[in-house]
């Protein structure tokens, strides 16, 4: 009788610990997604600001502005595509170091270029943190005990955020101290 009680208590503690761990992972996913959303919004905002600064030729301004605008207003199911398109627009506009230097030479351009470079570097990190949390939660939710006893409750199955987040090399290299003469 005592061994049965001990076994039941141990099973109960394990299940409680597992459910708590799953809950913490879901909270971590929510926090990581909020951080990712903030970085994506920051990147799109700075890109829109630069697009309207008058530094770029009209075609580059239009491409950058429209891509940033679409990324900011994209519905959740279209968000990954819109953010990838903004990444591609940034790479196209900042394809060479001369464009980065032209932005930096404009009034207020140094700060704007540094802010964009920082945002462009932070997006992949925020996405990696989010996707790592999703991967950990998915692994725990795959366990039979979690599935059979429905320890995840009604929480939706976590989804990774997949997008093209490769930074424009000319922008990131210059911000890291690279560029001409380095």
UniProtKB/TrEMBL annotation:
State the protein's name: Secreted protein
- Gene3D superfamilies linked: LemA-like domain (1.20.1440.20)
């Amino acid at each position: 009788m005592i061994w049965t009680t001990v076994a039941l208590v141990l099973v109960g503690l394990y299940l409680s610990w597992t459910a708590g761990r799953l809950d913490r992972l879901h909270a971590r996913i929510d926090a990581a997604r909020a951080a990712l959303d903030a970085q994506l919004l920051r990147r799109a905002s700075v890109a829109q600001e630069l697009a309207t600064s008058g530094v770029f030729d009209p075609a580059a301004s239009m491409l950058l502005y429209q891509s940033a605008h679409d990324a900011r207003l994209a519905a959740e199911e279209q968000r990954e595509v819109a953010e990838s398109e903004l990444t591609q627009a940034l790479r196209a506009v900042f394809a060479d170091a001369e464009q980065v230097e032209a932005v930096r030479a404009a009034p207020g351009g140094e700060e704007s270029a540094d802010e964009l470079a920082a945002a462009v570097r932070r997006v992949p990190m925020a996405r990696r943190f989010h996707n790592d949390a999703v991967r950990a939660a998915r692994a725990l939710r795959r366990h039979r005990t979690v599935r059979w006893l429905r320890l995840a409750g009604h929480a939706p199955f976590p989804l990774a955020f997949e997008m093209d987040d490769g930074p424009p090399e000319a922008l990131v290299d210059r911000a890291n101290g690279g560029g001409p003469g380095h």
